[in-house]
């Protein structure tokens, strides 16, 4: 968005356009992160929608001095996903939607060679063996692309603690892949 | 901030170095660890896409700015206030606190009488000490104990069922017929009442207060028997001897006390029932004697007898007149109460308790200022009482809110661990 456009638009429109831009930049990442926590595509779609609606309603409460917009948004996403997990754990046992190996295999076969398919399957299996907290860190770091500071903000821990945890999760992932 | 700035000095150097290597792999820098780069590439290749109808629907809602509107048609603020809405609990808590605060404030205000303390208290003293059983004195600061039996006794004796203020004094000064029966007189208490009231006001207000005294006395049907007013720049004093209907003495003292600050109040009462009965008996005896003499005169047969009886009748008539005069004097003493009132000018005098409310004078801007100050005082009192209630409740609510947040956060973390 150009500065000229920002200055010319009323505040309400500017804020909406800024939110729209944030949505387009982060929708896939937020969905992937929520899916890594819930492991249920349908529920993740609903939660992702709820995350953006909540963020839209509370956008005036965002304080830039307390972190980036992405960290704020992923914090909302984390709370929403964990609340969904809690709700589901109260009503029924968590039903994890099984991965669709056929679809992944077909996608892999269409785009990669056999060796690449094997490598991807190995990584996928390694990710599945990680503990939820480690899998969450991998999602935030590898898929969402958050910095360590942003991850610390999302998890409400110190930056050093976040770095240590990330290092530990990556080490486990590498060991699981080897 | 670049990704290379993520690590801090608190990290172990080896960990920090490996994190730096990871950052280089994530950013695709040349020379990055090939194994890490491969790992990053494979993980990212497996990112699920957010597409399909759900994505299209969310795109549309974002585009429209998430228009409000529940599935049941309820929209906006009302929807959020529904039991399932996000504002329901806060609104319920707020309403509960408001109701509680209102109730406590109302109780507190009722408990303290809501104001006009000075006037009410003074009136109470005056009324309680209205008709003591025996002769005594009462001051504003040290009121004589009221006679518990006096009011009841007078009420029982009173023929009418008028209000207490008028009934009690009326019992003392109820008009008796000139030929009243001794039995009726003996059954009533005859009390003579008087009061000495000292008021203090600012020197410049002595004249105004004195005028208020005269207006008040006239309004109550009394008279100023004598008065002396001296005005001086640094003081001034006025003295009044007032005569008021005894039935209105209490009201008069209450109203006069509002004209200025009360520096002294003494009330005297003297039971003269005995004297009243004695004179009434004497009158009755004289009348009986006269009747007997008249009867004897009608039966007299000689001139000497007639002459003697007439002389005795004349003597009896004189005694009857004397007794009637004595009775009337006593009645006057109980009908009228005397008040000795002194108004003293004092530069250090404060404002009267109820000045401007009921002294019968004009309502001045000064009165308006005083009323405004009083309103502010009451408002401040209400605010203090409200704060005394709401502050602890607010602190409790704050603590509860904080505890709920911590609990919810821990529950979320447990949920994540439980999915392992």
Summarize the structure.
The complex is a heterodimer of chains A (178) and B (420). With 178 residues, chain A is mainly α.
Helicity of chain A, as a percent range: over 70%
Strand percent estimate of chain B: 5-15%
Helix-and-strand structural type of chain B: alpha+beta
* Average pLDDT score of chain B: 75
Greatest interface (CB-CB under 8 A), with counts per chain: A-B, 58 and 49 residues
The biggest sheet of chain B, with number of strands, parallel, antiparallel or mixed sense and barrel status, is: 6 strands, mixed
Q: What separation lies between the terminal Cα atoms of chain A?
A: 45 Å
H and E string of chain B: HHHHHHEHHHEHEEHEHHEH
Shape of chain A from CA axes?
globular
| Main pleated-sheet profile of chain A | none
What portion of residues of chain B is helical?
55-70%
């Amino acid at each position: 968005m150009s500065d000229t456009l920002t200055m010319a638009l009323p505040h309400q429109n500017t804020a909406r356009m800024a939110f729209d831009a944030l949505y387009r930049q982060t929708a896939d990442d937020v969905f992937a992160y929520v899916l890594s926590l819930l492991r249920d595509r349908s529920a993740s779609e609903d939660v992702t929608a709820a995350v953006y609606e909540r963020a839209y309603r509370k956008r005036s409460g965002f304080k830039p001095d307390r972190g980036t917009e992405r960290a704020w948004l992923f914090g909302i996403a984390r709370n929403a996903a964990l609340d969904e997990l809690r709700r589901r754990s109260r009503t029924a046992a968590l039903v994890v939607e099984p991965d669709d190996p056929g679809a992944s295999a077909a996608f892999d076969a269409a785009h990669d060679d056999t060796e690449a398919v094997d490598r991807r399957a190995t990584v996928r299996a390694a990710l599945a063996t990680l503990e939820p907290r480690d899998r969450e860190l991998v999602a935030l770091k590898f898929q969402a692309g958050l910095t360590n500071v942003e991850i610390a903000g999302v998890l409400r821990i110190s930056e050093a603690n976040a770095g240590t945890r990330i290092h530990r999760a990556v080490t486990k992932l590498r060991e699981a892949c080897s | 901030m670049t990704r290379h700035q993520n690590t801090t000095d608190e990290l172990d150097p080896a960990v920090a170095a490996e994190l730096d290597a990871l950052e280089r792999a994530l950013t695709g820098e040349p020379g990055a660890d090939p194994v890490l780069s491969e790992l990053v590439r494979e993980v990212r290749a497996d990112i699920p896409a957010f597409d399909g109808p759900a994505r299209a629907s969310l795109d549309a809602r974002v585009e429209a700015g998430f228009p409000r509107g529940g599935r049941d048609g309820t929209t906006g603020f009302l929807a959020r206030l529904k039991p399932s809405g996000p504002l329901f609990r806060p609104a319920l808590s707020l309403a509960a606190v408001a109701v509680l605060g209102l109730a406590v404030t109302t109780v507190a205000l009722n408990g303290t009488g809501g104001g006009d303390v000075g006037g009410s208290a003074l009136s109470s003293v005056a009324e309680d000490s209205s008709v003591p059983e025996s002769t005594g004195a009462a001051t504003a600061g040290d009121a004589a104990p009221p006679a518990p039996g006096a009011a009841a006794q007078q009420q029982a004796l009173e023929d009418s069922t008028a209000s207490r203020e008028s009934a009690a004094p009326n019992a003392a000064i109820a008009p008796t017929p000139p030929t009243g029966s001794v039995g009726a007189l003996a059954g009533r208490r005859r009390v003579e009442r008087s009061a000495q009231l000292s008021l203090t006001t600012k020197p410049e207000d002595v004249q105004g207060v004195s005028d208020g005294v005269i207006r008040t006395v006239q309004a109550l049907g009394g008279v100023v028997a004598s008065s002396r007013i001296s005005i001086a720049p640094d003081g001034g004093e006025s003295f009044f001897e007032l005569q008021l209907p005894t039935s209105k003495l209490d009201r008069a003292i209450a109203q006069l006390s509002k004209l200025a600050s009360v520096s002294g109040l003494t009330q005297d009462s003297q039971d003269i029932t005995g004297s009243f009965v004695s004179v009434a008996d004497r009158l009755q005896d004289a009348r009986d004697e006269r009747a007997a003499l008249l009867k004897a005169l009608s039966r007299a047969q000689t001139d000497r007898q007639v002459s003697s009886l007439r002389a005795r009748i004349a003597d009896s008539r004189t005694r009857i007149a004397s007794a009637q005069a004595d009775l009337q004097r006593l009645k006057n003493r109980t009908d009228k109460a005397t008040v000795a009132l002194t108004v003293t000018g004092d530069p250090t005098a404060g404002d009267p308790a109820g000045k401007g409310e009921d002294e019968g004078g004009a309502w001045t801007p000064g009165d308006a200022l005083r009323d405004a100050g009083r309103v502010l005082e009451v408002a401040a009192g209400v605010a203090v009482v409200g704060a005394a209630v709401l502050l602890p409740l607010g602190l409790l609510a704050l603590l509860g809110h904080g505890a709920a947040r911590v609990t919810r956060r821990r529950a979320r973390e447990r949920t994540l661990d439980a999915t392992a």
